[in-house]
Amino acid sequence: MYYRIRHLTRFRYSEPITESIMEVRMHPRTEAMQRCLDYQLAVTPKANIHIYRDYLGNSVHHFDIPGAHSQLQLMAESVVEMKPWPPSPDRLPASAWEDLDRAVADGDYWEMLLPSLYCRWTPLLEKAAGEFDMVRRDDPLSLLSELSDRMFKGFEYTPRTTRVDSPIDEALKQRKGVCQDFSHIFISLARKLGIPSRYVSGYLHHRKEDQDRSDDGATHAWVECWLPGLGWTGIDPTNNLLAGERHIRTAIGRDYADVPPTRGVFKGGATTQLTVAVDVSPCEELPPELAEMTLSEENSFPQDVIALEQKMSDWEIQQQQQQQ
Predict the structure, then answer these.
(1) CATH code: domain of residue 304
(2) Are 61 and 75 in a shared domain?
(3) Coil, strand, or helix at residue 72?
(4) pLDDT at residue 294, as a whole number
């Protein structure tokens, strides 16, 4: 299966700004069953775009716009090939806990076991751990599957309840949140059990028959846990399923702070209005060519892109995990 992904981001400023510097993490990764066949990033005003890989292997595009400008527009477009993932077992042997501990002792997993900015142990998290009976038992895979199921049933997916920088306690108090919150809570609980866990930022292709709780037209977040015999295994607690062919990975990190789609600074005292739109379209065969998006200074966006923007609510704009 092939997917064509378009990710539009527009910053409007209340008054002209200068010296806008930004990093972009929207380039899908190539590894395992996923292969990025094409990636294009268009920036307006025009800028020289440079690329590097961070220490986790994420592709990072960065640029500097020194002149005065009242808006900044980015269109990331990619084509990704996704092959079916091999079936995952329902459970692992009881000895998997011992195998896990040996692998952790011999391997380099410490960053994905220690507390991070958004994945910290709190009294409310300890209470939730007791409620979910999160102690080592059975085997790691079945315990994580149980945690995903309990979170799915015990937490509501509700827009506008948290922000991109909200601590996990806000979602724990309300028992509601979005994919970012569910991922941070899941990671924190899994790390407490000694299971290396990391945050994944990317896209999810929504199909009507799946009845996903997460929003279409938005970026998505889920979790990967390292398990003996399986390696890094994707778990989507928002939708209570294992990550598979529909989950398209762009970046991995300790938590959201490592992988925001955009991160930048600018000179000036302006306020910022952010607009984001995402479209993930499947295709059985590789598209013969990619339609080029031309972003003009006068905002002459294609009508289908404008329609994408109109689908986004204020909360969805905030929850695209993009801050400048």
Answers:
(1) 2.60.40.2250
(2) yes
(3) strand
(4) 33
